C-alpha cells in the first residue's frame, strides 16, 4: 500500500460505514455483517493511550490486520499516510465466532500540538478463505484517532462561502479552529445538501459540498447548519 493515498471511490466503498460513524457519538457500532467495534472514535488520553473492543459476530473465524495512518485533509480531500507515530497492539489476530479482543493504541510521543492531531487506525478484515459461498465481502474500518490540542479544544470556528467552479456551485466550510468539527446537517435555500463522508472537517482545513441545482441562487444563498455537539445556526453567504 502506498505511503500516502487519496480517499478514492474504491476506498470509499470500504470505509463508508466507518465514516458515517464520525457523525454520531456511538459507544458501539456494528460496522459490517461480521464485526462489531466498541469505541469507534478513539480520543487519546494524556498518557497517549486509547483502546477499542473488536468482536467477531459472524459464524466464521475471522482474521484482522491493524495499520496506523496519519490523517490530513488537503484541498478538501482525505489523505492517509502510513505512520509510526503510534502503535496498535496486537497488530494481527484472529477471532472465532463470538470472540472479543481489546485493541490498545499507544503513541510514541503523546505531547499534543497547538491543533488537534488526527490519525486513523485501519482494522482490515481477513475472511476465512474456506467459506463455502463463492463471494466474501471484506471490510476495512478506518477508525478515527484524535490527540487533543494543547490547552484543550476551543469552540468551533467555521467560515462559510459559495464557490462557483465549472458551472456548478459548492458550499465551502473552512475550519479555522484548533479541533475537528462534524456536520450533522446542511441546507442551502431550504434544500438539503449531502455531506456524507465529508462530514468531518479537521482543524485548519476545509471541505466543499455540492449544492443541488434547484438551490442555486446566483451567488447569494441562505445556509442552515448543525454540528455534532449542538452548534447550529443560519446565515447568508456570498460567492467568493
From TrEMBL:
Gene Ontology cellular component terms for the protein in this record: outer membrane-bounded periplasmic space
GO BP annotations listed: cell wall organization
Lineage: superkingdom: Bacteria
Residues that span the membrane, as ranges: none
Ranges for domain Pili assembly chaperone N-terminal: 48-151
Gene3D superfamilies documented for this protein: Immunoglobulins
A Pfam entry, by short name: PapD_N
PANTHER family: PILUS ASSEMBLY CHAPERONE (PTHR30251), SLR1668 PROTEIN (PTHR30251:SF4)
Protein name: Molecular chaperone
Species this chain originates from: Thalassobius vesicularis
Amino acid at each position: 500500500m502506498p505511503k500516502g493515498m487519496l480517499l478514492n471511490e474504491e476506498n470509499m466503498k470500504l470505509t463508508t460505514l466507518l465514516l458515517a460513524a464520525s457523525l454520531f457519538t456511538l459507544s458501539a457500532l456494528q460496522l459490517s455483517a461480521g464485526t462489531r467495534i466498541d469505541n469507534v472514535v478513539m480520543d487519546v488520553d494524556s498518557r497517549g493511550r486509547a483502546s477499542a473492543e473488536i468482536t467477531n459476530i459472524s459464524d466464521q473465524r475471522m482474521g484482522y490486520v491493524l495499520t496506523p495512518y496519519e490523517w490530513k485533509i488537503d484541498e478538501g480531500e482525505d489523505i492517509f499516510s502510513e505512520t509510526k507515530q503510534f502503535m496498535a497492539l496486537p497488530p494481527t489476530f484472529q477471532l472465532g465466532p463470538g470472540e472479543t479482543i481489546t485493541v490498545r493504541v499507544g503513541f510514541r510521543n503523546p505531547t499534543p500540538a497547538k491543533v488537534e492531531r488526527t490519525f486513523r487506525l485501519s482494522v482490515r478484515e481477513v475472511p476465512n478463505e474456506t467459506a463455502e459461498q463463492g463471494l466474501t465481502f471484506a471490510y476495512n474500518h478506518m477508525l478515527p484517532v484524535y490527540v487533543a490540542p494543547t490547552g484543550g479544544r476551543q469552540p468551533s470556528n467555521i467560515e462559510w462561502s459559495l464557490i462557483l467552479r465549472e458551472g456548478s456551485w459548492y458550499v465551502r466550510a473552512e475550519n479555522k479552529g484548533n479541533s475537528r468539527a462534524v456536520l450533522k446537517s446542511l441546507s442551502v435555500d431550504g434544500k438539503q445538501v449531502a455531506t456524507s463522508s465529508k462530514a468531518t472537517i479537521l482543524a485548519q482545513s476545509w471541505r466543499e459540498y455540492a449544492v443541488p441545482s434547484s438551490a442555486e441562487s446566483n451567488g447569494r444563498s441562505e445556509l442552515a447548519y448543525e454540528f455534532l455537539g449542538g452548534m447550529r445556526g443560519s446565515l447568508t453567504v456570498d460567492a467568493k
